[in-house]
Structure formats: structure tokens, C-alpha cells
Amino acid sequence: MSRNNPRGETVDNGGGGGHALLGLLLGLAATSATLLVWQTFTPEPVHLLGLTADRLSAALTLLVAGVGAVTFRFSLRYLDGEPRRRRFLRLLVFTVGSAYLFMLSTNLLLLFVAWSLTSLGLHELLTFYPDRPEAWPPARKKFLISRLGDLALIAAIGVIWRDFGTLDLNAFLAAAATDPGGGSGTAVGLLVAVAALTKSAQFPFHSWLPETMESPTPVSALMHAGIINAGGALVLRFAPLVARVPEALVLLAAVGTLTFVLGTLAMWAQVKVKRTLAWSTVSQMGFMMVQCGVAAFPAALLHILGHGCYKAWSFLRSGGLPAAAPAAPTPPVRALTLAAVGTGLAVPALALASRATSFAPLDSPGELALAAVGALSVGQVWVALLGTRPATLARAVGALAATAAVPALAFGLYRGTGAFLAPVLGELPRPGGPLAWAAAVIPVAALAALAVLHAVLPALGRSAAGRVFYVHALHGFYLGAAADRVVDGIWRRVVKGTKEVEHG
Questions:
Q1: 298 CB contacts (<8 Å, ≥6 apart)?
Q2: Is 442 in contact with 257 (CB distance < 8 Å)?
């Protein structure tokens, strides 16, 4: 149904078609919820026409369809009166449907097609307002980076076909578990890691993500809550192989660490809500890759689901948020003392939680790294609760309660999710050796350094060097500008070459 707005433009309200598309998304969400319940009680995966319904795909598709349905419902009101609303809604459903298909696909060609279509749909959404020049540079960066990811993924598929003779992901993983194929398995693991890094905005492919503020708010919600997780979902699908390729693990951990450090520093410097949320996503995606890099795949799945729900909620409510009153900074000495006390008290709490949940962090470097992150997290809880005066008895009790509860909850969720994924991922090896230890130590050291830096920020901000650092962090250390120059050069060559062909 259409009408004319006061400027004489035809306004498309979507009509009944919009509600039909919403019903389609709700149907997909209901299907995934049904699959999830079914798989919980009957964990045998179901394979049909290159698709696999198992616990992993049911959880991921439920996130994609759920976020898609909520975003679509929000879009019906958000774009009310927009002349091209119907086109937007169709693009949104196309993108969600492609991502949904990607999460289910285990035929490698179908998986690649769905992977590529998701990227193309997102590109159209990012450039929905073509008359906004600010929308094009990040969209072009995203487009070129995605093509790099496409090349890495199709190369991995080519190696699998050449050396393993199959395009079925399940058959390949079963074969690789018994015979990784030497260099072939390593090549596939590294190529999958590169494809995942490009898809989930990892350094140095991250700068486009915080710059995509010219598209409608529902695009930001869909992208930050769902589409950006595709890299992590790809690694989870290939987890039985990636866990056996230490080079891929250390690559994921090292690049993920660079990404979450950069994203966190830039996030602290932002003053606008949406840019803060965007840099937060960069940081969170980096940490998700770290979890994959230390072979903590259950933690990565929990991270994807939790971050997806939180970020969709955050973006869809960002337009109505009042300006937050700045909190009084905690003096550096007090913050460092509280962080040290909380982290120290977390160690015996972690030992008790380990006994209670049968979680054995000493069995692998990656799980030991998770325990260290848990201890650092407890230290930050102490700073949050007791860093501001007055430090009441209730706050002190809360800090002590969190010291006991955080390790128990974290270990319990990790063990439960590991048991939930066991029918899908099988018995995974526990990586060891120098590369596994490097993958575990690098992110923990970086997180500890960030905790110290956050404590001394108030004092640092009063110095000339600190103010200079703040300006650099506010602009993402100018990595986006450098990427813009590279992309502009490539884009001009591509456009020029296309015109020469057209006129040749």
C-alpha cells in the first residue's frame, strides 16, 4: 500500500507484504526454537540436502532469526513514511535468510553461496541511502574485505575437494579427525581462520565497522548483533579441524588480541553512543576470536549468543538514551588496590569452583587462560562496586558474593555448553606445546595491561601525553584513514578498468 507524502514522493508503507515477511522471520525463529528443543532431547544431527540441523546450527539460527524478527518489527515503525521502505524490508529479510542458510549449510558450495549472499545483502543495506556520501567509504571497505574472505574460503574448499575428495563438511571433518592430511589440514585451518578474521572485523580489517553510522539504525542492530558473528560461526563449524592446527589457533588468538585491545582503547575515548557501541563490537569480536584461538569453543558460542542479544537491544534503544552523567573517577591507587585484592581472592574461589563443576583449567593452556580471565574479571567487579565512595557494607558483601559466584557461574556455563556441543564437535584435542601456550598467554597479558591502564586513566588524562593519546584513540589511531587510501586507490582502478572495458 502506498500514499503520497507532503513533498509529493510516493511513500511505501509495506502494506500486508511487510507483515507477511515478518511472519516468515517469526516462522524461521519458531522452527529454530523447535529444532533446539528437539536436539536437546534427541542430539542426533539431521542431514538433508546439504543442510545439517544439530545443536550448534539450531542455536545460531535461533539467534539470527530472532534478531532479524525483532529488527524487522522495529523497522516497520522506524521507517514509517520512508519512500523505499518495502525495498529495505525485503533486503533485510534477504540478508537474514542468507545468514540463516549459512548457519545450516554443511555442503561447502552451499555454505560459500550463503556466506557471499549475506555479505552482498549487507552491502545493499549499508548503502540504502545512496545520496549520503559518508555511507560509501566504509561500505566499499567492507565489500573489498569480504571479497578477500571469499577468496580464502573458496581456496579452503578447493583444498578440501582436491585432497579429501568431498564437498560435505561433515565427511571432511570426520576424515580430518583421523588423518589431517599433513599440510592440507594446516592449509585449510589457516584459510578458514583468515576468512573468519575478515568476516568479523578483525585487525586490520576492522575500520569499516565503526564508520557505518549512515545506514538506518536497524541495519546497525542486525549487523552488530548477528551478521558480524559469521566469522565465529565459521570457526565453530570447523572446530574439530582448527583445534588440531596450532598455527591457526595462535593466528586467531594474536589477531583477536590486537583487535580487542584496539577496540577497547577506542571505545573508552568515544563520546557518541553509537560509536561507543560500534567500537565495543570490535572489541567483543576480538575477544570472541581469542576464545576460538585458545580452543575454548563452548565459551565462543556463549559469547556469540550473549553479545548478539545484548547488542541488538543496545542499538535499538540507542536513539532514546539520555546523555549519561559522567561518573566520578576512582583514584588510581584505590582502583589498582581493589583490582589486585579482587583478583587475588578470586584464585581460591576459582579452585573451589573448579572442584564443584569438574572444570580442570590445569589440563590445557586455553582453559587456564579462561580461568585467568575470570580472576581478572572479579578484580574489575571489585573496582566497580567499591571504587566509588562511600564503600558501604552492602557493596562489600556484593563484592564478596561476586567473588564466589562469578567463577562458579562461568565454569558451570562452560562445562554445560561443552556437554551441549559434544554431539556436534565430538572429542576435541586439548592443544599443547609452545604455540598453544603463546595463544593463551598473549591475550591474558593484554587484558591485565588494559586493567592497569583503565585504573590509571584519570591521572593519565591530566597529562599532555595522555591528552594526545586520547585524541589518537578517539580516531581509532587513524587506521581507518590509512585503509581509506588503500581502498580508494583500488576502487578507482576497478572503476577505471570497468569503464575501459565498456568503451573498448
A1: 414, 415, 417, 418, 420, 421
A2: yes
